[in-house]
Fold:
Amino acid sequence: AEDGYNLWLRYAPLDPVLAADYATQLGEVVAPDQTPTLRAARDELVRGLTGLLGTAPRIQNESSAGHVLALGTPQSSALIAPFREELESLGEEGYLLKRTRRDGRDMLLVASRSDIGVLYGTFHLLRLLQTGTALDELTVHEAPRVRLRVLDHWDNLDGYVERGYAGRSLWEWQTLPEWRDPRYTDYARANASLGINGTVLNNVNANAQSLAPQYLDKAAALADVFRPYGIRVYLSARFSAPIELGGLKTADPLDPAVQQWWRDKADEIYQRIPDFGGFLVKANSEGQPGPQDYGRSHADGANLLADALAPHGGVVMWRAFVYAHDVADDRATQAYTEFAGLDGAFRPNVVLQVKNGPIDFQPREPFHPLFGAMPRTPLMMEFQITKEYLGFATHLVYLGPLFEEVLQADTRAGGKRFTVAQSLSGIAGVANIGTDRTWSGSHFDQANWYAFGRLAWNPDQSSRDIAADWAAMTFSPDPAVVQPIVGMMMASREATVNYMTPLGLHHLMARGHHYGPGPWVDGGPRADWTSVYYHRADRNGIGFDRTATGSNAVVQYAPEVAATYADLTQVPEALLLWFHHVPWDHGMASGRPLWDELVGRYSSGVRQVQAMQDTWASLRGRVDADRHEQVAAFLQIQLREAQWWRDASVAYFQSISGRPLPAGEAPPP
Ligand code: GCU
Structure:
């Protein structure tokens, strides 16, 4: 039965005619296996070709004649050595796929300067086969655009995954380091197939114990499993660990004893994990300890850890997600306020990790104003792959378009085109992975892990193309399957925006767990944990005024962007209520007044889910029954909940606007 365990690496048999054609073209395989990484590449190739083509490839030490598929580096393979120069420009992780003739042989090369590049190239070649791509004239030069491509696991040591909807943590701390669950290897394979090169094992709301020797031994065992796949292990560090673990009285970053403690801790880690990636830190945010507890700045805090890691080549990924103090006028402004002025104050091995938008992983946010605003500081994107605010794992929401929209946003930094993607040294994704058989809690949520990884490698790719690859690999390369699935996926994010938070509304989910509607949420300890704080609806209108007449958050953007967002005639309608408080009868592009448009958007979200259901129903028989049935059931849940979102939201806003439902809109039951 298809249970989803194999992700996009199913290697299901191809159409026999296509398979036979590939088999001839690939011929014999020459693949060195001197190192664990080269062995992983060869094993993956064998596994992939055996599944796709129906027979195991013939592995040779030397190629005899005819067609040959050659894997390797100039050092490990005499067949690759002549191409050394062509590989120069591809860097350490890049690779070349090339169809060529040499010495009377027809060769297909999977070549790189490094072993890991060979593994990446092998996965790329397999993807071409999985998607039924022609191999004649093949020439692919690939190199990652972004250096740090990292998954952040919000996994606690007790196995609970914060904001995780796919079961428990993959990491079996209880049985590590002795037992290395084979699933760890499959996790590494899946990530390597995308080029992900780092994993933060534990939650940003970190337990200091993660840095205790017994847990370091366990992390080291995982690092051993991941190493051949090019994946470095990182840990979230609790800023107060010198107190909790070290017995010090303070964690003040300027205290010499604290500095010594972190240096010793780094030495201890690198003894066990020589290629340890570094620390991820959430400080002075949502109650976490940090340098501000001692009157120091974020730069003082980050530099403390950076200095401890620098001799070993590690980095500090310091998070900019802060809104810790008394309720600011506008939570959306706080990260910029605290960090923009620190540009240039960080050590070179600090990377600032910034969420995609200024609030918190909403179905739609404008890009975060820190992108483009800190030219002297390496920045790292933080996306959330797990769908905390987007219906958990049951709603089908393909996040590719969300990621793409943010990455392609033009910051206008320096007064010229400068996209968010161009500003990045790293991309992190909060993982949606757990012990669920599907890994991600649903079949379609695998696509979000997939799209994240592909975009981390090259943030300028199209989310549609990525969806097409994923659908072909996961379900079938038959265009009659791929096309409708891609259509569903590409519409799904906008559908969710429509039935949850249309027109720039945000943070209207139920309190705490964030599942289901809660636009009425009010009261409690903090204004910015309510919904009314964000939508500001009253008898006259709705929306958060972030222009000069309101919080003036717009000034945190470059002047041209600020001018566009601040101008009611220019702001994109999709962000209208993010930046403006407007009357209920404000005229919209459709010609309808805002109130009617809002209700219409809620309803169209529901219809879009119905359309996804119809498409999926039409694929019955083309997709295996097991997966078809589960997706259909989840879509049924999604439809019910889209209706719930619409009915609850419209009823609530109507209680405030006092306006009648527009013609054609059925009253909520
Ligand atoms: C969100 C999320 C928290 C998480 C926080 C963070 O607020 O709800 O669970 O800890 O983001 O990113 O630090």
